[in-house]
Design goal:
- By secondary structure, this protein is of the alpha/beta class.
- It has helices at about 20-30, 80-95, 110, 120-125, 140-145, 160-170, 185, and strands spanning about 10-15, 35-45, 55, 65, 100-105, 130-135, 150-155.
- It has a domain at about 20-45 and about 55-70 and about 75-130 and about 165-188.
- The protein is built from seven helices and seven strands; from the N terminus they run βαβββαβααβαβαα.
- β3 and β4 (about 65) form a beta hairpin.
- The chain is globular and about 45 Å long.
- The protein starts with 7 loop residues before the first strand and ends with a helix.
Length: about 190
C-alpha cells in the first residue's frame, strides 16, 4: 500500500533513465525559488561504468569523489564507503541546520543493507523534512521493505516529481514556504 500523501518519495527509474540529472535540475529550481534543499546527487554512473564517480552536495554545489583508485586491474565496486559516509555527515549537518527537502542520490546496495546514506532518510523524516530518493526499479521491493511500505512511488519524470513536491507544499501550506521557517523550526 502506498500513501499518496507521504513525504517520502521513491523516484523509481529504469536502466535507460537518468534520475541524477533530473534531481540536480529539480534541486536547482527549488533553490532558485528560495527553498533550502540538502542532500547528495550522483554525477556519473555505477562502479563498472565510471571509476571516477562523484556526487554533488545539493546545498553547496560542491563535487565530492566517491571512488577509491584501486588500480587498473582491480575488480568489483570501488565505492569509497568512508567518502560516502563523510558526505552523509555533511548532509546530516545541513539537515540539522534546517532544510525544506532532502534528496538522497540512490537506494543502492549499501542502503539496502541499512548502511550508506540510509540513516539520512530517518534523520530527515524525524525532523519532518520531506525526502526524495532515486530507487532503481530492480531494487524497489527492497526499498518498500526498508521504508516499511510508507512511501509514494514516482515514475522518473520531472512533471511527476514537481506534482509530488507541489502536493507536499500544499499539505504543509504556510510551513514550508521559502520565506518562512521549516516544519521542524515551527514545531520547536
Amino acid at each position: 500500500m502506498f500513501d499518496s500523501q507521504c513525504d517520502l518519495a521513491a523516484l523509481v527509474y529504469e536502466g535507460d533513465q537518468d534520475p541524477d540529472e533530473m534531481l540536480r535540475g529539480f534541486a536547482s529550481d527549488l533553490k532558485a525559488g528560495g527553498y533550502r534543499v540538502a542532500g547528495l546527487v550522483q554525477i556519473g554512473h555505477h562502479c563498472v561504468d565510471a571509476p571516477r564517480l562523484s556526487a554533488m552536495l545539493v546545498d553547496t554545489g560542491e563535487e565530492l569523489q566517491l571512488f577509491q583508485d584501486l588500480g587498473a586491474c582491480a575488480t568489483g565496486c570501488r565505492l569509497d564507503v568512508g567518502q560516502l559516509l563523510d558526505a552523509g555527515a555533511r548532509v546530516a549537518s545541513a539537515i540539522d541546520q534546517g532544510a525544506d527537502l532532502v534528496i538522497i542520490n540512490r537506494f543502492g546496495r549499501q542502503e539496502r543493507e541499512g548502511k550508506g546514506l540510509s540513516f539520512l532518510v530517518e534523520r530527515a523524516l524525524s525532523a519532518d523534512i520531506p525526502v526524495v530518493i532515486a530507487v532503481p526499479s530492480h531494487r524497489f521491493a527492497d526499498w518498500i521493505r526498508f521504508a516499511d511500505g510508507m512511501s509514494v512511488r514516482l515514475r522518473c519524470d520531472r512533471k511527476i516529481l514537481d506534482a509530488w513536491w507541489n502536493s507536499v507544499i500544499a499539505r504543509n501550506a504556510g510551513l514550508a514556504r521559502p520565506d518562512h521557517r521549516t516544519v521542524r523550526e515551527v514545531i520547536k
